[in-house]
Every structure is written in C-alpha cells, then in structure tokens.
Amino acid sequence: QVQLVESGGGLVQAGGSLRLSCEASGRTFSSYAMGWFRQAPGKEREFVAAISRGGTSTIYADSVKGRFTISRDNAKNTVYLQMNSLKPEDTAVYYCAAQLGGLDTFRRLNEYNDWGQGTQVTVSS
Q1: Residue 16: which of 125, 118, 92, 93 has the closest Cα?
Q2: pLDDT tens per residue, range 49-79
Q3: Which of 1, 7, 48, 108 is most buried by its number of CB atoms within 10 A?
Q4: 82-113 burial string, b = 16+ CB within 10 Å, else e?
C-alpha cells in the first residue's frame, strides 16, 4: 500500500498552465505504475494519463494528448502532470493513483488500489 498526496491545483484562465504533483509515502514507489484521473461535477471519474514504473512508457486520454505530460521522479517518490493549453472542460478534481499491473491495465480505474485525496483544477473561460 502507498499513501498519495496531490498538490498544485488551482484557478487558471483558459490557455494557461498548471503542474500537479503527487507525492507518495513508502520506499516502494518505483514498484508502482502511476495514473492521473479526473472527475468533473456530475460525471464519472475518467482516465487522464499513466506512466510505467521506470517512466519509459506513458499513455494519455485522447482529450489531453499533446497538451498534458505525465512524468515521475522515483528518487523523490513523486509523479507529475504538466497541463498546458488548459480548457474550461479540463475543470475537475484530479486524482493520482497507484497500481501494480501492466501497461494494458493503465486506463482501467478499477485496477488502481491506492488513491490520493484529489486536487481541484478550475479553468475559467
């Protein structure tokens, strides 16, 4: 099990950028693939991006591809989500999550066992 704490959310104008961070506790962070999900009011939680244990493989939802970048620093037990060219439809609570599965499970919400508390991102038009 790993404990996750997100930070970096806030209010930004459309076209702006934010960088989310998710710090994990424990010494086994590098054993986990990491994902970012988001949930807008009245909508289901959806996949945003994921990164493999060593950081060599990444995948993205089509809605954020080319605008968002996921990365990780295993020495700092931290995963990041750089969000550029933000749109009002990116407004949501963003969650990081950890799982032990392979690349084929990265998009599946129910494959993630550990979740952070979420950080609010609001993009104004």
Answers
A1: 125
A2: 999 999 999 999 999 999 999 999 999 999 9
A3: 48
A4: ebeebeeebbbbbbbbbbeeeeeebbeeebbe
Q: Are 2 and 25 in contact (CB under 8 A)?
A: yes
What is the per-residue DSSP string for the chain? ---EEEE--EEEETT--EEEEEEE-SS-GGGSEEEEEEE-TTS--EEEEEE-TTS--EEE-TTTTTTEEEEEEGGGTEEEEEE-S--GGG-EEEEEEEE---GGGTT-GGG--EE---EEEEEE-
**Residue 58 amino acid letter:** T
- Residue indicated by tokens 């710090």: 23
Q: What is the mean pLDDT of residues 77-99?
A: 98
CA atoms within 13 A on the CB side of 71: 9
- pLDDT in the model for residue 104: 86
